[in-house]
Write a structure and sequence with these properties.
Pfam families: ACPS
Oligomer: single chain
Radius of gyration: 17 Å
Protein name: 4'-phosphopantetheinyl transferase superfamily protein
GO molecular function, one term: magnesium ion binding
Number of helices: 6
Number of domains: 2
Strand order of the largest sheet: 7-11-10-9-8
Strand content: 25-35%
Keywords: Transferase
Helix content: 25-40%
Structural class: alpha+beta
Distance between the termini: 34 Å
Order of helices and strands: EEHHHEEEEEHHHEEEE
Shape: globular
Number of strands: 11
């Protein structure tokens, strides 16, 4: 069972990361999906997406949950029936969840790719990164920024929220492991702690609402 990493953030918050190496049939063993989730999975054309989807259920099982404990609101945000907070992410061969007893949370895993240089101006002011040493470092930093904004977007879950205009990530160094973020939307401001880590060419970012 390739549970890749467990991070105990604090007494009430935990991150679990899975490396998807098993076949779809192996991952299906012991997993009972709700009709809604079964329909969602059967609509996935990519086997890797289906395997990732199933691996999330194994991560949930480690924390004592089954698929029937999970439901989605109208914005597509996942919730747990016991009232705890959950966020889910899937990127190629890695999946992850964050669960918190008391705080709203968001998580995102991204593969580090040069593609991010082409889309960066759509989600962050590029002039903020003129001092970054080289292209590799820039890809790494922009991937963290994207993951941070994606994590905050997952927490906020409001249609119309703009990565570029409404979500701000406090500048940080690649040698750091955390920063902060702010959402200013429709006159309301909310603040978040953001933690990030890198492994095997991937970046994981998770956010916790203050």
């Amino acid at each position: 069972m390739p549970l890749y990493k467990t991070i105990t953030v604090n007494v009430s918050t935990k991150v679990l990361i899975w490396k998807v190496e098993e076949s779809e049939s192996q991952l299906s063993e012991g997993v009972v999906l709700t009709p809604h989730c079964q329909k969602r999975m059967m609509g996935m054309k990519s086997e890797l997406h289906r395997r990732g989807f199933l691996s999330i259920r194994h991560l949930m099982a480690i924390e004592g949950y089954v698929d029937h404990d999970l439901f989605y609101d109208e914005a597509g945000k996942p919730h747990l029936t016991d009232g705890k907070f959950i966020s889910i992410t899937h990127s190629h061969e890695f999946t992850g969840i964050i669960i918190s007893d008391t705080k709203e949370v968001g998580i995102d895993i991204e593969m580090q790719r040069d593609k991010i240089l082409r889309i960066a101006n759509k989600y962050t002011p590029l002039e903020e990164y003129k001092t970054v040493a080289n292209a590799d470092a820039l890809v790494r930093k922009l991937t963290i920024v994207w993951g941070a904004k994606e994590s905050l977007y997952k927490i906020y879950a409001q249609h119309g929220l703009s990565f570029l205009h409404h979500i701000d990530i406090t500048d940080f160094s690649l040698s750091d492991s955390e920063t902060t973020g702010t959402i200013l939307y429709k006159g309301k401001t909310s603040h978040y702690n953001i933690i990030f880590l890198e492994f095997e060419g991937y970046t994981c970012v998770y956010a916790i609402k203050n």
